[in-house]
Amino acid sequence: MKAIRRFTVRPVLPEPLRPLHDLARNLRWSWHTETRELFRSADPEGWRPADADPVRLLGSLTAGRLAELGRDEEYLGRLAEVSADLKEYLDGPRWYQEQQAAGAELPSAIAYFSPEFGVTAALPQYSGGLGILAGDHLKAASDLGVPLIGVGLLYRHGYFRQSLSREGWQQEHYPVLDPNELPLDLVREADGTPARVVLALPGGRSLYACIWLARVGRVPLLLLDSDVEENAPGERDVTDRLYGGGSDHRLLQEMLLGIGGVRAVRTWCRLTRTPEPEVFHTNEGHAGFLGLERIRELAAEGLDFEAALEVVRAGTVFTTHTPVPAGIDRFDRQLIVRHFGEDGELPGVPVEKILPLGRETYPGGEPELFNMAVMGLRLAQRANGVSTLHGAVSREMFSGLWPGFDPADVPITSITNGVHAPTWVAPEVFRLGAGQVGTGRAHQVLAGGPVTDGGTEQQPGTPRRWDAVGGIGDRDIWELRRELRGQLVTEVRRRLYASWRRRGAGTAELGWIDDVLDPEILTVGFARRVPSYKRLTLMLRDRDRLRELLLHPTHPIQIVVAGKAHPADDGGKRLVQELVRFADDPRVRHRIVFLPDYGMGMAQKLYPGCDVWLNNPLRPLEACGTSGMKAALNGCLNLSVRDGWWDEWFEPDFGWEIPTADGSAVDEDRRDELESNALYALIEDRVAPRFYDRGAEGLPDRWIEMVRSTLVNLGPKVLAGRMVREYVERLYAPAALSRRALGPAVARDLAEWKAKVRAAWREVSVDHVESVTDTVAGGSAELGATLSLRVRIALGGLEPDDVEVQVVAGRVDSADAIADAQVFPLKPAGGHDLEDRWLYEGPLALDRTGPYGYTVRVLPSHELLASGAELGLLAVPNEATGEGAGVLMR
Question: DUF3417 domain location, by residue (predicted)?
């Protein structure tokens, strides 16, 4: 019989065990080994059935076991130590507070919005890399003491659970998640009633949401949940599942995340009396509506739209994670009008002001669509990609918003992602490192916080702090790798058996699983989402050749594969099925496996146990690709296309690069053929021989040296602590200073100045450029010579203080395009003539040999602009534009 009502009965802990409650409700346990061990020892047999989740474990403990633990002096002593450690972690000063004490001007708080957060498998609110990155961002911020407030949605079905049919077709399951059984607490008002946010919907309807709190160390993560009694059935389902539903459903989710998220932050700060955020970080475009809500708040205080927009932009950071336009949410213009019209949300913010923010005004854009990434860029003064290569790709992809500017000048920077080492480093790896530097220092090293060494503080991420790992003996490293590989073999067999049972196989059919994988064989891992560009099946391009690699008599390999296709992506599901059917072949099934239901729990076993991590996307479509970082932190070598983070940090000491066929004349099929052949050749000729090449003591000396180099030299670079520090120093702190500078009067003045400049810009032109002391003779000049330039500029009624005139110079190619440009300012050389033209002068030093050239440009200039390209306005000489006027951007 089915129950007519469901509720959760919480355990009553004996008084000596009460601290277990706080330890279980703070997700720091997910990356703190001592806390996990404390819970595991409470019920070693129940730890795995509880999925290593302390909340579930406590709910399963019998009253007798609780009483027994309450009398166990040794256990209570450990409990006291771990509880005291958590208190010190939560309350003590960390890197951020030390920077403030040293005089750094940092934000009082930062709100970090993301559609998904991968903090722990016990809180399944993620689908893939974006969510895992967001979770690692929160954890690293906590470790560094950064006052972050996370904001997301609570999906009652999460993403989905994956299984396989007998034929290998992906099947989706959506378990119901009860927040009361998760490590969450309901945010309540002072009178005990649940706190609510509410959004107005068309037709007089309302969307209500409660707020759940997840404690991620020092960082509160606020998750909005629409499954509340006040809502009609349709509105209750707004937060039903991650990345599900049609356009209207997705729009409501993103309105709740952005608009409702700001209101949830305001509620949290009011209830806890914590400082209001000065900076709002939009992690991808899904949360872009948060800027509109903040404009509404300012409008309610009397600020007009244009001035409010300047205030909002100053304090907003936007991070793009996609290298392809297809990965961006776009909504029909009329859907936006319906939800933000007269009876919709955001009163005081006219819909005719909202629409231009998301309009695709560039060539090839669709003006009838509302683009969330475009709005994110227009509402943020600072934007970034997530690797150096992705930054360049993003500048190219969004360059239409800044027409006339070279992609290199588009104001999108990059901060390369990192991973949270305490989450992803296997305990065995940690213990080996701690044996060299001590447990406390090892924790600090992995977290990315400052470490004192002989009284001298070393900055997080500096390689010197990792040098001690270089002192670990070859045999210790190799025995560690063998141990982790053996653990992976055991885990794979367990998961493969469970998968085949769900596929309908009987016990008598599955004896072969006992021989799947071999702890002594070179193990390759490949696990990620399954969009087509990640090329799950590239390894199957020549199946005979792959079989030869798997079954090689002296240098065999074995491969562990995992990944989920989006439920609506039948093409991705076909790729999964193709791989599964190959792995089902009795000839090779002991050497290649596909594990369904890839998630954080599986990943934490998979990365450490692999010897090589494979990544073969279509370059440059991998924004960053952090799975290889997690593998590297465990001594796993990378075998990857030069894309994402691997493009900037690849060295032969860390692994191998798969050559790419990037030529425009190469079609997709031919490209796959060339790159798969390169992959096979690398494994056959270089990777496998190095693994099996044994030295005098029976160890693979050259392989071990690569493992050591990966840990010592690559390890410090891939830390999320390094990443968060860069966000603080390069984006958050400047954004906070910009926001503080914009009081109401200053914001109005800035908005009026921008309007004046935009109105006058079509009359701005570069009329004449000459060299007063021309040292160029016969088309050449000597290195070290100086040109004295004089330029005549028409300012169209603007003043010299409103603009900056620059010389852009550098080497030129055969088409006279300037590469690796240098920029030199020119100074006004007196008043203006009767035609309102101004003279500018300045020197140009010829400090490079070879083909060289220069041009002149005029940009708006104001002390409150983050860059000269911010307004998207540019004037260049007639020779470049074919006309004298400036080019109006956006």
Answer: 13-123
